Amino acid sequence: MNTNEIRCKFINFFKSKQHTYVPSASTIPVGDQTILFTIAGMTQFKSCLTGEEVRPYTRATNAQKCIRVADLDDVGKDGRHCTMFEMLGSWSFGDYYKKEAIEWAYEFTKNELNFDLSRFWVTVHHSDDEAFQIWEKIGVPTHRIVRLGDKDNFWAMGPTGPCGPCSELYLDQGEHVGSCAEQGKTCAGPGCDCDRFLEFWNLVFMQYNRQEDGTLHDLPMKSVDTGCGLERLTALIQGKTSNFDIDIFLRIKQKILDISGHTQKLAELSKQELESFNVIADHIRLLTFTVADGVHFSNEGRGYVLRRVLRRAVRHIHKIAPNWPKNKSFLAQLVQIVIKEMGEFYPEIATNQKRIEDAIFAEELRFNSTLDIGLAKFHAFIEDTKNKHKKVLSGENVFILHDSYGFPADLTQILCQELGFQADLDSFKNYMQEQKQRSRTEAKFYKFDLDDSPWIEFNPANQEKDKSFSGYFLQATTIKENHDVIELPINFSQIKKVRQLKNKFFEFVIENTPFYPEGGGQVADNGWIAVQAANSKNEFEVIDVRKTASQIVHLLKHIEWSSDSAAPLSSTEILNLFGQNSKVTAFVDLTLRTATMRNHTATHLLHKALQIVLGDSVRQAGSFVHSEGLRFDFSYNKALSNQEIKTIEGIVNKQILKNISIKVHESVPLSTAKEMGAMAMFDEKYEDHVRMLEVPEFSLELCGGTHVSTTGQIGLFKIISEGSVTSGVRRIEGITGFNSLEFCNKLQNQILLTAEAIKCAESEIVNKIHSMKENSKELEKQIHILQSRIVNTQIASLVANAIDLGNNIKLVINVLETNDTKEMELLCDRLKEKPATIAVIAANIENKAHLMVAINPSLIKQYKKLSAGQIVKQLSEIVEGKGGGRPDFARGGGINPEKIPVALKKVVEIIQLAI
């Protein structure tokens, strides 16, 4: 069986057991800030396993694309580690438990994989008698059921939370396989890390909730989470001891062989060459999938991981193809073979082929351009380290290679090891931390869920309603603070819980909130909550709204309390304030909401316009929509021309002028939306049923945000800036509505002021400026002629009064009264033309010492030690600065102009030592 057949066989088997097939999630984990990448099949089901989320199915199966880079340095050296791999999985969310999980795993192993059961072993947790008995009952001999401890057979999400025992399935690869056999030792069986017994499937039984004190409490809902690595399973089925020898990798490596120009076959490669082939084959899979999912090369986070991986791959390309042209991408040519092998099951990589190739092409060439310079710098650092009789490259040097030449620290470490050195990575981390500290700015928003203040519960939680937004279509009913608002009563039954944070800040949870929570790039609504209690009237400003896994939380600020005078309220006081006898009213600020809606709908029009002008491979890479404007990031590798920007603006405004009625499609099955061609964000989490926004005959996108009802309500769309965010990502900033009008008015005013300043009509500004520039050039010519005449007069006097150093050598020393270094340069150039002449010119310009030295070339040839660079360097030290340059001309200076006379007194002495 090949890799694709095994994947389909696994999924179809569990579908036959009434499991719902759930497509692979993105490699970018959604809603989980604890990890950079999706690292396991259970990542997208974490909230289901903890009970925070309820889905319409209780059984699931899938094949998940996963990324793990913790063991990056080991990839290619052994047959087990891959940075990108597929995890086959099956799950039960409070449905079946150990019996079915074990029986189905055994059935699939026996009947579908046709493994030799005499080589089949399992492990269970030493305390899990139930699992042991189930395995025994279905026919596994007891001597092949091994009990192991917590280290091997107990799984947990973290130090606290859901956890439980697990049972692992192994296949004995034979006595001849593994490090124990190589060392003449006897393998201890499953659990030994020699690789003879290879674990290929893990069944996790989540039945406990670990408390902070370490005690285990039974979970109310027991679940099953199983994971089976596809590459490892395929290797076992195909009789291979290395993942890199399975069918899918062999075809990628053959393509690498073809591109590299190697004449030998794969089987004839040396061990070192094979390692490089394995690294490149592995890394191109990671790059293809992550770029397709919307990750961009950068110097932080996920983007930095991609950059490290690509540069590691390039390093191995230079090993197998040392003469590969630096203006040509090797890796981009491998994207096609990855798509051919995996694109049928993962269509997103085929859909985004051009964007993937363009991004990899640009990044590889960017690294190639600095690689030689960086390597030269690295070897210079190594030479310096040798001279100091040390074997460890300093953290400062590692940091410079990282910061200035783009060398990831692990690449520098590898280069060091190849030469018998080590890199001081601990010190490097300190330098990185200092750099982060310098650039770190304080966050401007309150961080939800980081406060441990107690909640006061009012009504039972209802997850569906507590995280529901009901305010899509609101009309203003009154005016508040000069803003249009809608006044909405909040019934006591809607109030779920409240807690006071610090002084005047509160968190507030209600069901079916009319306030839009931040999401999808759109900022949260603002507004007010008024509370009329029995003996008091309180008003709170709604300053932020965020959605968590189970609820929408409103951050409130009491308007009348001062931050340091208000004592925390007691539980009773909070209960009375928001209690059944109080009148609670919400006021949503529709002035800000409407301005935000204009900008949000404009981003949809902009997205489509970008694809029309720049190509379908353009994809949204991020957005930020608020009342003042919009920011839209998109995948593209070069700056937009003025004409392209003008065309994009025109397309958007044409749709606005059509005043098209916008259609909202509620609760559309996600699969249907994709079939309809709806565009989606890579790192947004979507439910099984989604909301679509359609601008008929123009744009269709998944979107949960708020929008205008017709395009005409946007007003005027104006692009105010376009630039680069990071490698392969551009950013457009734009404005709409009244902000566009204000922008145009300011622009018009600037035009009027400019016309007045240069005394011409508005229509003649450009011509007048061109005329002024021509006049300026003519004046500069006249000034240059006058300066030359002055200099010629000075030269005659300076040469006549030059110091005679003997051998017909003349030394001119002069302190020039000038505010322009160009005048100094002109004087030096003319004096340098004089036979056997040395000129030293100084000036005090803006309270700083400026020095220049010029020497006639004939003297440089005659006196090998004579150098303008060396002279100016010594003089600059006297004026507390530095300098340098060529043997015939150099410049320098310092912060102490008062020492210019002292420096000039040293000139004769310095020159005489050289001649």
Automatic annotation (TrEMBL):
Main subcellular location of this protein, as a coarse class: cytoplasm
Pfam family for this entry, one: tRNA-synt_2c
SUPFAM superfamilies attached to this UniProt entry: Class II aaRS and biotin synthetases, Putative anticodon-binding domain of alanyl-tRNA synthetase (AlaRS), ThrRS/AlaRS common domain, Translation proteins
Binding-site list for Zn(2+): H600, H604, C703, H707
Claim: Zinc is one of the keywords in the record: yes
Gene3D superfamilies in the cross-refs: 2.40.30.130, 3.10.310.40, 3.30.54.20, Bira Bifunctional Protein, Domain 2 (3.30.930.10), Threonyl-trna Synthetase, Chain A, domain 2 (3.30.980.10)
Cofactor mode of binding and number, as noted: Binds 1 zinc ion per subunit.
Domain annotation Alanyl-transfer RNA synthetases family profile: ranges: 1-746
Compartmental location: Cytoplasm
Biological-process GO terms, alphabetical: alanyl-tRNA aminoacylation
NCBIfam families (UniProt xref): alaS (TIGR00344)
Family: Belongs to the class-II aminoacyl-tRNA synthetase family.
PANTHER family, A to Z: ALANINE--TRNA LIGASE, CYTOPLASMIC, ALANYL-TRNA SYNTHETASE
Matches recorded under HAMAP family: Ala_tRNA_synth_B
Name of the protein this chain belongs to: Alanine--tRNA ligase
Species of provenance: Spirobacillus cienkowskii
